[in-house]
Amino acid sequence: MQSLISSLSPIMTIFFIAALGYLVGAIKIKGISLGTAGVLLVALVFGHFGAQVNAIARNIGLVSFVTSVGFIAGPKFFRNFKVNAKSYILLGVIIILVGGLSSIFAIKVGGISAELSVGLLTGALTSTPGLAAAQEAAGELKDLATTGYAIAYPFGVVGVVLFVQLMPRILKVDIAAERANYEAANEAPLRKTGDAGKKRGDAAGFIAFCLAAALGLILGDIHIPLPGGAQFSLGSTGGPLIMGLIFGHLAHVGSFDLTVPIPVLKTFRELGLMLFLIGAGVSGGAGFVETLREEGIILFVYGAIMTLLPMIVGYVFAAKVLKLSLFNNLGSITGGMTSTPALGTLISVAGTDDVASAYAATYPIALVCVVLVAQFTVLLF
C-alpha cells in the first residue's frame, strides 16, 4: 500500500483523495455524515502512507474558499455585525479563554510541558497562526509545539464538523423554519448589478474574484506587534476573507461591477475547501501514527478536550446568555474555533450561506486571542 500511494504523482494524488474522500463523506450513519470533511480523513491516510501534495494546493484552496465565502456573505455581513458585534467579540474571547484554561489544565494536572500543551491547543483549534506564535515562544523547544499540533489537528477538524451537524439534531430543530427566520432577520436590500449599467470585466467575475484574493493576501501579510514579542497578522485566511466581504458589500466601484455570479462562488467555495483539506490532511497524516505511538494516547485525549470544551461552553453561553439564534450561535462557534471546514459543513446543514457572517465576525477576534494565549502560556508556565 505504501509503495503504491507514495509512487503517485502529486496531481494524481489530489484527484484520488478527492474521489475517495467524497465517497467517504457521503456515508451517513443515523443521518450524520462528514461531507467534505471525509476528504480530510482520506488525506490523512494517504499522508500516513507517504503521499505528497505541494503546499500551494492547500494555500490556493484556502484562499479560494474564504474569498468566496466573503463575497457571498458580504451583502449582509455589516448589518449582521452591527446588530450582534458585542456578542461576536465576547464569544470569540470566551471560546479561546476556555481553550487556554484547558491547556493550562493539561500542564498542571497532566504534567506535560507548556510547549507541547499549546501545540495541542493550536491543533485543537486548527490555528496555524497560533502554532506559529507557540513555536516562536517555545524557541529551541518549538518541535514540541509542532508535535502537539499534529496530534490534535485531525480531531480539531472532525470534532467541530460533527458538532455543527449534531446540535440541530439533538435540539430537534426545524431547519427550514430556523433558516427562514434567520434569513428574514438578516435580510439585505437587493442590489442591481451588471445589467444596470455596471461594467464587469468578464462574464464569470474572475477579475473581481482574483483582485479581492490578491488584495486580501497583501492585507493578510501585514504584521502587527503584540505584547510579549508576538506578532499578529490576518494571514491567508483572514485577509482574503475580509477583502471578499468588502467586495461583496460594495458590489461595484463607480461603473465597475465587483460582483461574481453565485454559481461561480459556490464552485470556488467547494473546490477551495476540498484542496485545503487535501493539503492539510496529507501534511498532518505524515508521521501522525508514529507521533501518537511515541507520545501516548493521553495527548490525543487532551487535544480532544481542548476542542470539545470551548465549543460546549461557547454554545451554552451564546444560547443562554447572549440569546443568539441557532445559526448565529453555530456560525460564531465555527469562527471562534477558527474552523474553516466546519463553516463549509454548517453552510450545507443550514442551507444558507448567511451563516458565514457570524463566522467572519468572530474569526478575527479568535485569531488574535489564540495567538496571545499561545504566546503567554509558554512564557508564564
Can you give a write-up of this model?
With 381 residues, the chain is an all-alpha fold. 74% of the residues lie in helices and 2% in strands. It has 16 helices and 4 strands. The protein has helices spanning 2-6, 10-25, 38-48, 55-108, 114-124, 128-138, 142-170, 175-185, 206-220, 235-250, 262-285, 288-295, 297-320, 326-336, 340-350, 356-380; strands spanning 224-225, 231-232, 252-253, 256-257. It is globular, with a radius of gyration of 20 Å.
End-to-end separation in angstroms reads 43 Å
- Spatial strand sequence of the major β-sheet: 1-2
Low-confidence runs of at least 5 consecutive residues: 192-196
Kindly estimate the percentage of residues that lie in beta strands according to DSSP. Answer: under 5%
User: Could you give the order of the helices and strands?
Assistant: HHHHHHHHHEEHEEHHHHHH
Radius of gyration using CA atoms only: 20 Å
Structural class: mainly alpha
Helicity level, as a percent range? over 70%
Number of strands: 4
- The coarse overall form would be globular
Count the helices. How many? 16
**Major beta sheet, specifics?**
2 strands, antiparallel
Give the averaged pLDDT, no decimals. 85
